[in-house]
Every structure is written in C-alpha cells, then in structure tokens.
Design goal:
The chain has about 325 residues and is α/β, with parallel strands linked by helices. Helices cover about 35% and strands about 15% of the residues. It contains 11 helices and 12 strands. Helix 4 crosses helix 6. Bound molecules: nicotinamide-adenine-dinucleotide (NAD). Nicotinamide-adenine-dinucleotide binds next to helix 6.
C-alpha cells in the first residue's frame, strides 16, 4: 500500500514518519494541493490525504477515479473544499477529522482570556515605550469572573470545563443543552450570557444562524469591562461593529484567532508590505486587542491526531471497512 499526503508542512513530517514506521506503509509527502495539473502524479498511489483552503475542481474527481483512487481524506475538520456530489458520482469515499483536539483550541481561549484579564497586551505596549508603570492596569483573578461560552459543543464544552476547573462561574448558550455539561455550566439565553459574562468565548460552527451572530446589538449588551474571545470563525463576528464597540469603549478588549478575510493575510509573511485589510489595520493599532493567525489547532497533539486519524481512515477504507468519519 502506498499513500500520498498533500500540502504537507515541515512540522507534520515527524508525525507522518512515525505513523509510516508503526504501520509499515509507504507515505510520500508533497507540498502541493490537489488540483488538475497534479492529478497525473497520483497514478500508482492507493490512497490520498489532502489539506487545503482552495476547492478541489470538477475535473479532479473523474481523474481520481481513472487513476484507481477510491477515497479523498482531508485531515481537517472542514470538508467544504470537496464537492460531495462529484465525489459520490466517481465512487470516492470522503472522510474528515472532525475533532483532532478540542483541547488545542480551548487552551488558546484560556491563554487569550488570561492575557486579556491580566492586561498583558497593554503592559507589553507600555514596556515597548520603556513605560514600566502599572497604574490603571489592575487585573481580575479568573475565579472571581463569569465566563460565557456561546456554542458549547466539543471545543466550547472543553473550554467550559477548563474555566470551571479554575473556579470561574461558567454560563453558556447553545441551541442544544447537553446533560453532560450541566455539572460545569449554567445554560442561559444568548442575551443573558452577553449581559452577565466578563469574558465571552465564541465556539459555534459557522452556519447561516451564526453568521454575524455577534453584531452591534449583541456587543451593546456586553458589560463595558467585558472581553470578547473569538476562536471559531471570523464571520461569526461583525468586524466593523466590533471595531466600533472597541473604539467607543463599549467593551474592554478582544482576542481574535480568526477574522473575516483572513485567507488574505493569516499564515503569510507581510513584513514591509501593505496590509490587505483596513479592519486588520485598525485592530492592530489597538493595544487591548490580541490577534493570532488562526493557530488554535496548531499544537503537538492536534497535528499528531490530524495525521494519525486521517491515515488510519485511509487504511480502513482501502481495507473495505467503514470509517466513522465518512461524510459521504
Ligand atoms: P461542534 O459542532 O462540536 O460545536 C459547535 C456548537 O455550536 C454546537 O454545540 C452547536 O449546537 C452550536 N451552535 C450552532 N449554531 C448555533 C447558534 N446559532 N447559537 C448557539 N449555538 C450554536 O464544533 P467544535 O468541534 O466545537 O468546533 C467549533 C468551531 O471551532 C468549528 O466549527 C470551527 O469553526 C472552529 N475551530 C477553530 C479552530 C482554530 O484553529 N481556531 C480549530 C478547530 C475548529
């Protein structure tokens, strides 16, 4: 058996080599994405694993079938780059990795929250100017605060448990109230969470009901001392409304691991180049805003799991078994 892994980064290679050794299967890696100009290079492989932001084009699916490929496995949670209909028509089984490590994102929410409530971003900005005063920057201890989780699924539920373990009061809003989370959270309406929390952590998935879920009206409900932490998807927050709320001091600050339009700037080195987003330019100027380039997933455990789970699935499918991660 021979598997080709595409869009492989250097930081994934140790995990891939480890899996190949344990399973005694040849894994070849390339840095390119799955697009029509590369399909001829897949001939001779039994299985493929992808990870890409751009769509898999229509002509790729019949070409994969003609090359004898039976599956498309993406080692990401999202699989919107794959046309499931086209895959089905060409007998290609599609799998994803729905939960590679909820802790990876939840721990970033914790790190962002601690940075915000200790006002470390502001201390850093002062220190950069050789201003080492502490006046006006008294912090709050986490166990004295109420943390609000909007979207208490796999990641949000994990975040809730972490804050509960630290002694914070945790309140949550979700369309589904999970019994297993009730020892850790008090469920409320979205408006009540917004009004009562000192920190709001967003962990919904992006769907029509969560597009701009946090806009002008929702930000107006938050306490002026409260912080917003977005680790899920940029469009869940109306960025212009957020910038206005920060400028008007309607909220105290924000931490954003994701931002609308991020595909144009996150994970690029734009040093000495003009930034392609006015929103990004404005947010970068605020010392009560933390920006990280969509790195919630980027941990040792998550990267290992993305590799291991995706490759296990390829083998399972090639062996004629059904994977629990089949999305088609
Ligand atoms: P999940 O499906 O387990 O949880 C999402 C929760 O949101 C569900 O409980 C769902 O009921 C709830 N929800 C959906 N619409 C809602 C609405 N309108 N109001 C209230 N709740 C609503 O997903 P997950 O695995 O916890 O992941 C959540 C999101 O985190 C992902 O969809 C992805 O966008 C994001 N994510 C970010 C990173 C990162 O690197 N920052 C990594 C992985 C995932």
């Amino acid at each position: 058996m021979k598997i080709l892994m595409m869009s492989v980064r250097d930081d994934e290679k140790a995990a891939i080599e480890g899996w190949a050794k344990r399973n005694n299967i040849q894994i070849d890696t390339v840095d390119w994405e799955l697009h029509p100009d590369h399909v001829s290079e897949l001939v001779g492989y039994d299985g493929i694993v992808i990870q890409q932001r751009s769509k898999v084009e229509a002509e790729v699916y019949p070409a994969l079938k003609a090359a004898g490929i039976k599956q498309i496995t993406t080692r990401t949670a999202g699989f919107d780059v794959i046309d499931l209909d086209a895959a089905r028509k060409n007998n290609l089984i599609v799998t994803n990795v729905p939960a590679y490590s909820p802790r990876s994102v939840a721990e970033l929410a914790l790190a962002h929250t601690m940075r915000l409530i200790r006002k470390l971003e502001i201390f850093d900005a002062r220190a950069a100017k050789q201003d080492f005063r502490w006046a006006g920057l008294q912090a709050a201890e986490i166990h004295s605060l109420t943390v609000g989780i909007i979207g208490a699924g796999r990641i949000g539920g994990t975040t809730a448990k972490i804050f509960n373990a630290l002694g914070a009061k945790v309140i949550a809003h979700d369309l589904v109230e999970r019994e297993e989370l009730k020892p850790f959270v008090t469920y409320m309406k979205k408006e009540e969470v917004l009004q009562n929390a000192d920190v709001i952590c967003l962990h919904v998935d992006l769907n029509p009901s969560t597009f701009n879920l946090i806009g002008k009206d929702e930000l107006a409900l938050m306490k002026p001392t409260a912080y917003l932490v977005n680790e899920c998807r940029g469009p869940v927050v109306d960025t212009d409304a957020l910038i206005e709320a920060l400028e008007q001091k309607e909220i105290a600050g924000a931490a954003l691991d994701t931002l609308t339009g991020e595909e144009n700037f996150f994970n690029f080195n734009l040093e000495n180049k003009e930034l392609p987003s006015q929103q990004l330019i404005k947010l970068r100027k605020m010392d009560n805003v933390i920006l990280t380039p969509h790195v919630g997933f980027f941990t040792n455990i998550a990267v290992q799991n993305m590799v291991d789970i995706s490759l296990d699935d390829v083998v399972m499918i090639l062996d004629g078994k059904k994977s629990e991660h089949q999305v088609s």
